[in-house]
Structures are given as structure tokens and as C-alpha cells.
Design a protein that fits this description.
The protein is of the alpha+beta class. It has a single domain, classed as Cytochrome P450 (Cytochrome p450), CATH 1.10.630.10. Helix content is 54%, strand content 10%. The strands form six sheets. Strands 3-4-9-6 form a four-stranded mixed sheet. A three-stranded antiparallel sheet has the order 5-15-12. A two-stranded antiparallel sheet has the order 1-2. Helix 7 packs antiparallel against helix 8, helix 9 packs across helix 11 and helix 10 crosses helix 11. The radius of gyration is 25 Å and the shape is globular. Belongs to the cytochrome P450 family.
Length: 505
């Protein structure tokens, strides 16, 4: 090298070394450390294995804003996370037009969810939302839901648990509930009876696809997964292979569905798209219906099973809550002269009378929301109610898991499982959807909220009325982040008929 080259390298190296060796670290208003050049990346990597716990700690300490900013200069878009209900209302309602999913978020999930309702914006989202809203508000659909839930519990779920009782085996309740939710949504949405066909290949491929897509969001360096996708290597290669199985299942449902059966949701969507002559987005194609299938399976299988498995975990360590639910079941049976019923399946009106159970399920969803974090993209510059400045293109997320553990929202007992917080004189009182975000809020609020409660309450009533259960591992389950919040190693449980006195593991 000549003298000029050495001078040039020195000119570049000196400021870089100065930044790398700089002792003083910048801090944003949440107290999160921002290092020179690498920004908040070191803290993120250090805590990636406990991301929700770490996020909750930071947001809780960031008073009064309850907002944190993650930033890795050059290689990552600014990520703003908040647990402030005022910010959530601003993002999801007041200024929701400025916070669509955005192109990059859409691209991250498109391999899996396609252009379905959970992964679309603009006219495509409005079209699907309008169509789904019309269907979910029909009484006939509610009756169809009740009919299917009753059948699936009596003829699918109960026999599995009866067999486990007879053999004295330990079941993974997470797996059992996922299978139940899958059978349920397949019958409701597509009029497909999965029967004894385990469909293990599909289940495995679906779960693997969901986890790889989730990992894209958890990777702070965007170009890494995009490069792997371009080269078709590693997890991105596995995603393509898994999606072939998932797509084959979806297209098989579409091509073999009963054309004259109009009760299931897929047929209703197909009829609506065929009758929409003004739709210029080719929504009446098999690709559109494929996206409908995958989005419904995600909503019906993942969220309901996640909500239920965390509920039964919390209930196992809160026997007083279980006793109150059993008393409520007994009270409603007596009220409706149903003491001798062996089915333990309540109708819609009886389920609505169960205020305490509704409160207990809501309390579980507060602490363990299936959709633990939700991310939008800022379409333009903005300032949130807590004063946080948002630049165009920034990712803006609210963390439902953290919100459920925020003292300023729920009080000093925010980490306790306490159904009574939802009751006023014994009657369930809903909270603002901007502080209880389990079902989202604003224009994108979950249309299946009532359906979810119907399914969860029906399962809980029947299971608790007929069975006692003991969780094999008393340690709190590890969080497993996928499309929804799952338990890392499942929930091993042993069941016994309730009339039997002793239960041993």
C-alpha cells in the first residue's frame, strides 16, 4: 500500500473505532440501551429466548409512556413497541388508516397466509371483511356453530378422554385441543369431516410453516431470511416444502367440497365471490379460496386451542376458581332442570348465563393472549398520544402479553389469575378492547369473538363436569412463540372421571 491508501484507511477506520469504543451509550426514553452502529441489537439478541418477558420488563419500566424503540441502523427498520392503551386506540381506531399491515409485513407472511383477511390491506381487506361480517352476523351460522361444537365434543373429544381414563394414560392436552379445534373449524368452515384420519403430515407441515414465518419477524436482520429464501436453503427451503403439503390440503378441500351445501363458510365465500361482478381482483379464483382456507384454519385451530390450553393450566393451580365454575355449572343445570343430563352440553342461552366462566376465560386471555403481539406499518409520519414520534415506514406494535402484566392498566395484582376483576355484582362487565386486546380492536376487531367464547365455554363445561385432571409437570410451561402463543413442551395431563375420588400420576 502507498501512503495515500494508508491515509484513506485511517480516515475511515478512526471514526469507526471511535464509535465502537465509545463508552457512553445512548438511551431512549424507555431506558433501553442503544449502542453505536449496532443500536439495540445486542440487547435484543441477548433476550431473544425470553422476548415477551424482556419486552414486558422494558415496557413496565418505561413509565408513563410504556413504549420502547428498537433500532438497528442501516439493516433494520425502526420497531416501536407499546403497551399504552391510549397508543393502542390511536393505532387501531383513531388513526387506523395510517397503520395498515404494510408491504413488508405482508411479504413476510404471504407464503403462509397469502392475501387472506389477516394479511391484507385496502380494497382486498374491505371486500373480505364485509363478506365475513355479513356471514358472522347471521343467526343460521350461530346455530350451525352450536350444532358442530356439540357433535365434536360428544363424538370426538369425550371419546379421546374416556379412552385415556380407561388406560390411565397421560395426554398432551395442547395436542388434544389443537386436534379438536382443527376438526371443529374444518367442519364449520369447509364442511369437511376429518374423522379418524389423523392428517399428521398436514399438521406437522402447518405448524412448521407457522413457526418459520414467525421466525422472520423475530430475526432483527431482515436480509438474512430473504437471502435464505432467494437461495432456497435452510428454514426457507423447509418452508417451501411444508407449504406444498399445506397448499395441497387446501386445494383438495376447495375441489372436493359439496357444491350444494351452503352452510359452511367456504361455500358462502365462494357464492359471494361468484356473485360479485364488480370485483376486479380475481377473488373468485382458487387462489383466493386457498387463502380463505388457510386463514380460517389459523383462526379456528391456533387461537382457540391456545386460549384453552393456557386456561386449563391456570385452572390447575387455582382450585378455588375451578370450584366456582363447577358451582355455576350445577346452578344452571338446576335452573333448567337438567341435573340428570349426561352430555353436559349447554345451549347458546345457557352458555351466555355463565358469567363467572366468561370472566375466568377472559382473565386467562388477558394473561396469555393467543395473539401476543400485533404489528402495523406507519404509512406516514405521526405522533402517538404518549409523545412518541413515528416516522413513515416504522413498524409499530402493541404487545398484548405485556399489557396484561402492566400495573397501571390492571392494578397491583395484574399478574394474578383473578376472574373477579371482570365481575360487577356477579355479572360480567367487558373491558375496553384497547386494554384487553385478545380480540384486537377497531375496524379489524375479531369477527369470531363470540364463536370463540362459544367453543371455549362448551369445552370447559363438558370437560370439568365429567372429568378431573392433574397436570403432570407443576413448573410453569415455557412460552413458545409461533403464529399464536403456545407451550414449548405441551401440557401433559392425566384425566379421571369426576365421580372417582382419587387421582394418581
Amino acid at each position: 500500500m502507498n501512503t495515500d491508501e494508508y491515509l484513506f484507511l485511517g480516515f475511515i477506520a478512526i471514526p469507526i473505532l471511535f464509535l465502537l469504543l465509545k463508552i457512553k451509550l445512548n438511551k431512549n426514553k424507555s431506558g433501553l440501551r442503544s449502542h453505536p452502529i449496532v443500536g439495540t441489537l445486542p440487547d435484543f439478541i441477548k433476550n431473544k429466548h425470553r422476548l415477551l418477558e424482556w419486552t414486558t420488563e422494558i415496557l413496565s419500566s418505561a413509565t408513563p409512556a410504556q413504549t420502547m424503540v428498537l433500532h438497528v441502523p442501516i439493516i433494520q427498520t425502526v420497531q416501536i413497541l407499546t403497551s399504552n392503551p391510549l397508543n393502542v386506540e390511536h393505532i387501531l381506531k383513531t388513526n387506523s388508516k395510517n397503520y395498515p399491515k404494510g408491504e413488508l409485513n405482508h411479504f413476510k407472511v404471504r407464503d403462509f397466509l397469502g392475501d387472506g383477511i389477516f394479511n391484507s390491506d385496502g380494497e382486498n381487506w374491505h371486500f373480505q371483511r364485509k363478506m365475513a361480517s355479513l356471514e358472522f352476523n347471521k343467526r343460521s351460522l350461530r346455530n350451525f356453530i352450536m350444532e358442530i361444537v356439540r357433535f365434536q365434543i360428544l363424538h370426538r373429544l369425550i371419546p379421546v378422554l374416556d379412552a385415556a381414563v380407561e388406560k390411565g394414560t397421560i395426554l398432551d392436552l395442547q395436542d388434544v385441543l389443537q386436534r379438536f379445534a382443527f376438526d371443529n373449524i374444518c367442519k364449520l368452515a369447509f364442511n369437511v369431516d376429518t374423522g379418524e384420519n389423523i392428517l399428521r403430515d398436514f399438521m406437522k407441515a402447518f405448524d412448521e410453516s407457522a413457526e418459520i414465518v414467525t421466525e422472520r419477524f423475530l430475526n432483527p436482520v431482515v436480509f438474512i431470511w430473504r437471502l435464505k429464501r432467494f437461495l432456497n436453503i435452510g428454514t426457507e427451503k423447509r418452508l417451501k416444502e411444508s407449504m406444498k403439503i399445506v397448499d395441497a390440503f387446501a386445494y383438495d378441500i376447495i375441489r372436493t367440497r359439496k357444491p350444494n351445501h351452503s352452510d359452511d363458510l367456504l361455500s358462502r365465500f365462494a357464492a359471494a365471490t361468484n356473485g360479485d361482478n364488480n370485483n376486479n381482483n380475481n377473488n373468485n379464483t382458487e387462489q383466493f379460496l386457498r387463502d380463505v382456507v388457510i386463514n380460517f384454519i389459523t383462526a379456528g385451530r391456533q387461537t382457540t386451542s391456545s386460549g384453552l390450553v393456557w386456561f386449563f393450566w391456570l385452572l390447575s393451580s387455582n382450585p378455588g376458581v375451578e370450584l366456582k365454575i363447577l358451582e355455576e355449572i350445577k346452578s344452571i343445570k338446576a335452573k333448567h332442570h337438567d341435573d340428570n343430563s349426561s352430555s353436559s352440553i349447554f345451549n347458546f342461552d345457557q352458555l351466555r348465563e355463565m358469567d363467572y366462566l366468561h370472566a375466568a376465560i377472559s382473565e386467562s386471555l388477558r394473561l396469555y393472549p393467543p395473539v401476543y403481539i400485533d404489528t402495523q406499518t406507519a404509512a406516514g409520519d405521526d405522533v402517538m398520544p404518549d409523545g412518541t414520534h413515528v416516522k413513515k415506514g416504522a413498524f409499530v406494535s402493541y404487545c398484548g402479553y405485556s399489557m396484561g402484566r402492566t400495573e397501571s392498566i390492571w392494578g397491583s395484582d395484574c399478574c394474578e389469575f383473578k376472574p373477579e376483576r371482570w365481575l360487577v355484582n356477579g355479572v360480567f362487565k367487558p373491558e375496553s378492547p384497547f386494554k384487553f386486546t385478545a380480540f384486537h380492536a377497531g375496524p379489524r376487531m375479531c369477527l369470531g369473538k363470540e364463536m370463540s367464547y362459544i367453543q371455549m365455554k362448551s369445552v370447559v363445561v363438558c370437560l370439568l363436569d365429567k372429568f378431573k385432571y392433574v397436570v403432570a409437570n407443576k413448573s410453569p410451561p415455557e412460552l413458545h412463540l409461533s403464529i399464536t402463543l403456545r407451550m414449548k413442551n405441551g401440557l401433559p395431563v392425566q384425566f379421571q372421571n369426576r365421580e372417582t375420588e382419587n387421582l394418581f400420576l
